[in-house]
Amino acid sequence: MGSPVVNNVLHPVNQLSITRTILANERTLLSYLRGSVGCLLGGIGLIKFLDHPVYLFSGSVLLVFSVILFVVGLKRFRSVKKLISEIDPVDWLVVEQRIVGTPGNRGRVSARAQKTPDEPRR
Prior knowledge:
It is rod-shaped, with a radius of gyration of 24 Å. By secondary structure, it is mainly alpha-helical. The protein has one domain (11-102). A hairpin with a 2-residue loop joins strand 1 and strand 2 (9-10). It has helices spanning 12-49, 53-86, 89-100; strands spanning 5-6, 9-10. It has 3 helices and 2 strands; from the N terminus they run E-E-H-H-H. 9% of the residues are buried.
């Protein structure tokens, strides 16, 4: 297969790997934000609708936790985004080879998958 970078253009497989990694990072950020909004709404609900010191304290803790979760999510997103942008494109091939195997195996069907449907499964 040759080098994954030809004239500063990534091989499509490696470009998809980068895209998947970026999208996974964005999904993680959205999960942090969803948790933060959930804690925020839960805290507001406890404070607003239940007038007992235990619920007021619990609501306050949820509000503080919501802010902390939001900040941690943003910091993590930015740090991972920076790490992703610093990865050399050639390194993506190395990661792919460790996960998938050698580049020569791409597109080949394994012997197990080549069995005909008539053969019983073991």
